[in-house]
């Protein structure tokens, strides 16, 4: 039983539309199997296979290959399809070396490094992520669409509001979709890892304080982001606890002292 008619595609509208048109033609030449029938072979859902030939975005190569496999494409023909897919992929993303194949990337972001200038903690990092999206005038729905569903609206929202931990793989995808170049993405991820490690050191230091003197420091440990304000919360304790706290936050201090040697009389 044939499925419902698909929305017509103008193959002259652009490379993505032409690619989708060719996928539909290849499906027709295979006897026009239903997407449900194809799904049993391709191991993709009927909806995903339908979207691959919708012409709205370039499907990933994995999805394209599954689509063609369900249409009984030979190995030799598959190689030609892959060459065509790679050519279109380079055409719509001129950099060609973004880490996420098949994702629609918009124009490079000129102020990405500027947004990181004053970021000193994870809260500020989240604010920079939000500012990056706003400056590109992207909605959360558009982020999801441009990432081919790999970054859902709820995940993106929870990341920037603090409900979800800033996982590097999701942040990398978020930045790529916002138009950052690979070197810029690498820098942002480097900053994220540094701030995350700083936060963990601060949390470890606070745990030391609460074990030593829980009643005194109960108010100071309600919530802490890894900023310099964390060190001020130790002023209630003694000098020994303060020194231990600072050494956890800044482990390189002891190394620097050992390199300088004993004071000269």
Structure notes:
By secondary structure, the protein is mostly helical. It has 3 domains: 15-92, 434 Repressor (Amino-terminal Domain), CATH 1.10.260; 112-189, 434 Repressor (Amino-terminal Domain); 194-260, no CATH class. The chain has 15 helices and no strands. It starts with 14 loop residues before the first helix and ends in a 5-residue tail after the last helix.
From N to C, what is the helix and strand string? HHHHHHHHHHHHHHH
N-end to C-end Cα span = 95 Å
The mean pLDDT is 76
Whole-number total of structural domains: 3
Report the β-strand fraction as a percent range: under 5%
List the quaternary state of the chains. single chain
Main sheet characteristics: none
User: Structural class of the helix and strand makeup?
Assistant: mainly alpha
Radius of gyration: 26 Å
Total count of strands: 0
What is the CATH level 1 assignment of the largest domain? Mainly Alpha
Low-confidence segments, ≥5 residues, pLDDT <50? 94-110, 220-238, 255-260
């Amino acid at each position: 039983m044939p499925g419902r008619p698909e929305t017509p595609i103008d193959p002259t509208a652009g490379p993505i539309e032409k690619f989708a048109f060719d996928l539909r033609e290849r499906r027709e030449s295979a006897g026009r199997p239903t997407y449900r029938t194809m799904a049993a072979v391709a191991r993709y859902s009927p909806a995903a296979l339908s979207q691959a030939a919708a012409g709205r975005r370039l499907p990933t190569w994995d999805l394209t290959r599954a689509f063609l496999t369900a249409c009984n494409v030979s190995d030799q023909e598959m190689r030609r399809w892959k060459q065509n897919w790679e050519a279109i992929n380079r055409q719509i993303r001129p950099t060609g070396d973004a880490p996420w194949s098949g994702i629609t990337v918009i124009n490079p972001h000129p102020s990405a490094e500027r947004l990181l200038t004053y970021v000193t903690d994870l809260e500020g990092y989240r604010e920079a992520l939000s500012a990056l999206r706003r400056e590109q005038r992207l909605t959360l729905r558009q982020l999801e669409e441009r990432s081919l569903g790999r970054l859902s609206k709820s995940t993106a929202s929870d990341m920037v509001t603090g409900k979800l931990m800033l996982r590097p793989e999701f942040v990398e995808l978020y930045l790529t979709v916002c138009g950052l170049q690979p070197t810029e993405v690498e820098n942002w991820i480097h900053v994220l890892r540094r701030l995350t490690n700083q936060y963990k050191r601060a949390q470890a230091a606070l745990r030391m304080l609460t074990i030593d003197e829980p009643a005194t420091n109960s108010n100071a440990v309600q919530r802490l982001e890894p900023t310099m304000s964390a060190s001020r919360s130790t002023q209630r304790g003694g000098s020994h606890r303060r020194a231990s706290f600072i050494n956890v936050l800044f482990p390189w201090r002891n190394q620097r002292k050992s390199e300088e040697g004993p004071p000269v009389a």
